[in-house]
Amino acid sequence: MLRFDCVDEAERAAGLDAAAAAVSRGGLVVLPTDTVYGLGADAFGREAVSSLLAAKGRGRSMPVPVLIGSWRTLEGLIERTTPQVRDLIQAFWPGGLTLVVRHVPSLRWDLGEGRGTVAVRMPLHPVAIELLGRTGPMAVSSANISGQPPATTADEAIAQLGGAAEVYLDGGACADAVPSTIVDCTGDVPVVVRAGAVGLEALREVLPLVQEPAGR
Fold this sequence. Notes:
Residues 13-198 form the YrdC-like domain. The chain is α/β, with parallel strands linked by helices and 216 residues long. The chain contains seven helices and ten strands.
């Protein structure tokens, strides 16, 4: 297990090298994001994603989200960028909004039981963006054991995951420590399926018909 202080320029460079190498060989890494720390793997590595789920103690019924480092990357992953998806991306990416969309059927990945959909986000964090620029899309879930609080520092991630991750990129404490908002964009009307960093009022300023979570 390697840990790198990404506040230090030299350590950050070495850490990014080590993390990219680990991902390329199917290993797991912990990285800071603008919401909470994430446990990441190659999105197209079936065994790597299985290792991620095992490290968290999480089943396949909750597919692993995907982080991307650029808007252009999204075009190769999803079937169609609808006007609603485009408006939300322009308003909130990079940032704390995850969009559930239908992915291209030919993609050779296995993120869990997604039934043709993927939850995708572009984070607003320089370390995460630089790593994603090297690795391409990564399967990333919160860096914690399933059912436990998400890690907001590298120390918290290490305490929960230990040697399950090869590399820990320490970007300091998360500024807000609030998970991303998840909006399902697979239907005619976008629906919030998890409240989080982007509030309903802000979403409705962009798309007035966005529905709030069921039961509220």
